[in-house]
Amino acid sequence: VKVVESGGGLVHPGGSLRLSCEASGLSNSVLSMNWFRQAPGKERELVATIFPVSGTTNYADSVKGRFAISRGNERNTAYLEMDNLKHEDTAMYVCCARTTNGYWGQGTQVTVSS
Fold first, then answer.
1. CB neighbour list of residue 69: distance below 8 Å, 6 or more residues apart
2. pLDDT tens digits for range 89-107
3. Residue 91: CA atoms inside 13 Å, Cβ hemisphere, count?
Protein backbone atom coordinates (compact mmCIF):
# COMPACT_ATOMS: atom_id res chain seq x y z
CA VAL A 1 0.00 0.00 0.00
CA LYS A 2 1.23 3.43 -0.87
CA VAL A 3 -0.19 6.80 0.14
CA VAL A 4 1.32 9.82 -1.57
CA GLU A 5 0.59 13.47 -0.88
CA SER A 6 1.55 16.44 -3.01
CA GLY A 7 0.84 20.13 -3.39
CA GLY A 8 2.45 21.67 -0.35
CA GLY A 9 4.66 24.72 -0.49
CA LEU A 10 5.30 28.24 0.68
CA VAL A 11 2.45 30.72 0.48
CA HIS A 12 1.73 34.20 1.79
CA PRO A 13 -1.02 34.77 4.36
CA GLY A 14 -4.35 34.95 2.58
CA GLY A 15 -3.12 32.69 -0.19
CA SER A 16 -4.36 29.29 -1.34
CA LEU A 17 -2.98 25.82 -1.87
CA ARG A 18 -4.47 22.55 -3.10
CA LEU A 19 -3.18 19.30 -1.63
CA SER A 20 -3.63 15.94 -3.30
CA CYS A 21 -3.58 12.45 -1.86
CA GLU A 22 -3.66 9.13 -3.67
CA ALA A 23 -3.71 5.72 -2.04
CA SER A 24 -2.77 2.71 -4.13
CA GLY A 25 -2.45 -1.01 -3.54
CA LEU A 26 -5.42 -1.20 -1.21
CA SER A 27 -7.15 -4.56 -0.97
CA ASN A 28 -10.27 -3.25 0.76
CA SER A 29 -12.61 -0.39 -0.01
CA VAL A 30 -11.72 3.02 1.35
CA LEU A 31 -14.08 4.00 4.17
CA SER A 32 -12.70 7.49 4.65
CA MET A 33 -9.92 9.77 3.48
CA ASN A 34 -8.47 12.05 6.12
CA TRP A 35 -6.10 15.00 6.27
CA PHE A 36 -4.15 15.52 9.47
CA ARG A 37 -1.58 18.17 10.25
CA GLN A 38 1.16 18.51 12.79
CA ALA A 39 3.17 21.60 13.59
CA PRO A 40 6.42 21.53 15.58
CA GLY A 41 5.69 21.25 19.28
CA LYS A 42 1.98 20.66 18.73
CA GLU A 43 -0.21 17.58 18.74
CA ARG A 44 -1.42 16.07 15.51
CA GLU A 45 -4.78 17.53 14.49
CA LEU A 46 -7.47 15.98 12.30
CA VAL A 47 -8.23 18.70 9.78
CA ALA A 48 -10.77 17.19 7.41
CA THR A 49 -12.46 13.89 6.57
CA ILE A 50 -14.47 12.71 3.60
CA PHE A 51 -16.50 9.53 3.39
CA PRO A 52 -16.27 8.67 -0.30
CA VAL A 53 -19.48 6.67 -0.60
CA SER A 54 -21.81 9.25 0.93
CA GLY A 55 -19.73 12.34 0.22
CA THR A 56 -20.12 13.45 3.83
CA THR A 57 -17.37 15.76 5.06
CA ASN A 58 -16.19 16.87 8.49
CA TYR A 59 -13.83 19.70 9.42
CA ALA A 60 -11.92 20.94 12.42
CA ASP A 61 -13.36 24.19 13.75
CA SER A 62 -10.07 25.91 13.01
CA VAL A 63 -10.46 25.42 9.24
CA LYS A 64 -14.23 25.55 8.70
CA GLY A 65 -15.15 27.95 5.94
CA ARG A 66 -11.58 28.06 4.62
CA PHE A 67 -10.71 24.46 3.71
CA ALA A 68 -12.66 22.06 1.52
CA ILE A 69 -12.02 18.35 1.15
CA SER A 70 -13.18 16.52 -1.94
CA ARG A 71 -12.69 13.16 -3.59
CA GLY A 72 -11.51 12.31 -7.03
CA ASN A 73 -13.24 10.01 -9.48
CA GLU A 74 -11.62 7.14 -7.63
CA ARG A 75 -12.53 6.68 -3.97
CA ASN A 76 -8.85 6.39 -3.09
CA THR A 77 -8.03 9.96 -4.02
CA ALA A 78 -8.72 13.10 -2.04
CA TYR A 79 -7.97 16.77 -2.31
CA LEU A 80 -7.76 19.54 0.24
CA GLU A 81 -8.42 23.02 -1.07
CA MET A 82 -7.07 25.54 1.41
CA ASP A 83 -8.03 29.19 1.08
CA ASN A 84 -7.32 32.28 3.17
CA LEU A 85 -4.31 30.56 4.70
CA LYS A 86 -3.00 31.84 8.01
CA HIS A 87 0.37 31.62 9.75
CA GLU A 88 -1.13 29.06 12.14
CA ASP A 89 -1.90 26.72 9.24
CA THR A 90 1.83 26.07 8.87
CA ALA A 91 2.36 22.35 9.43
CA MET A 92 3.16 19.03 7.86
CA TYR A 93 -0.06 17.81 6.25
CA VAL A 94 -0.45 14.05 6.20
CA CYS A 95 -3.10 11.99 4.44
CA CYS A 96 -4.57 8.84 5.97
CA ALA A 97 -6.67 6.39 3.99
CA ARG A 98 -8.84 4.22 6.21
CA THR A 99 -10.13 0.81 5.25
CA THR A 100 -10.19 -1.73 8.02
CA ASN A 101 -6.76 -0.27 8.78
CA GLY A 102 -5.25 3.17 8.46
CA TYR A 103 -2.60 3.85 5.86
CA TRP A 104 -0.47 6.96 6.15
CA GLY A 105 1.56 8.99 3.74
CA GLN A 106 4.83 10.78 4.42
CA GLY A 107 3.23 14.20 4.36
CA THR A 108 3.64 17.46 2.48
CA GLN A 109 4.86 20.64 4.12
CA VAL A 110 2.71 23.77 4.09
CA THR A 111 4.37 26.99 5.18
CA VAL A 112 2.44 30.23 5.47
CA SER A 113 4.78 33.15 5.80
CA SER A 114 5.11 36.79 4.85
1. 33, 35, 48, 49, 50, 57, 59, 78, 79, 80, 81
2. 999 999 999 999 999 999 9
3. 21
